Amino acid sequence: MPIKSVYIDNNVWDFLFARQMDLSVELPADRYCLCMTREAEFEIPPIPEEKADLKQFIQEAIRSCVRTVPFFGFFDESLPTDEQRHGGFDQGRFASLEELDFINQQRTTIGSRKKEKTKLYPNEADVSVAARSFESIVLTLDRKKGPINSAYQQGGQIVFLTEFDGSGLSLMEYVEAKIVRRQP
Q1: Which tops the pLDDT comparison, 90 or 166?
Q2: What is the rounded CA–CA span in Å between residue 103 and residue 44?
């Protein structure tokens, strides 16, 4: 079976932590490449101190089995070095035409004023992870109207974990079942 890229939406960390799920066991590296977007990295530092255990859980998962995969792009002069969204040569991957079309389509949903805590524009992280669903699998709990739901409606490989607990399946079985049903 070919290795599939699986992107973790930021809201999934609480879900995994509450169930003490080890991603390296649930979605093994011989079958899945576990990824996060560059924008998702910005959402971790603002996690409050009262959730230190969650933050440690996330950081351990990132160290052990989740890698950040930005889209290829050049330095954005309007952003500080530590807030760059794209990766340069040997860092970022090329976006597909379908991913770029989705990002362009969603541009109007991204706000114009950065949030102070995350340094992200409103909906920026959602657009970034949603775009990945046209080439990869995205795990999320976000069913509300917005970029992720829009990508799902357009055929993106979005797996909503909201019904996982009642499924009786392992995470891998659940993801595979949801993706198989989405195939045309």
Answers
A1: 166
A2: 23
What digits encode the pLDDT tens for the residues 25-44?
999 999 999 999 999 999 99
Residue 135 contacts residue 6 (beta carbons within 8 Å)? no
Task: For the chain, give the number of residues.
Answer: 184
C-beta of residue 85 within 8 angstroms of C-beta of residue 38: yes
Give strand pairing partners of 139.
8, 159
Which pTM was predicted? 0.91
SS3 label, residue 125: helix
Dist. CA 158–CA 174, nearest whole Å: 12
Q: Measured between alpha carbons, how far is 139 from 141 in angstroms, rounded to an integer?
A: 7
- What's the one-letter identity of residue 127? V
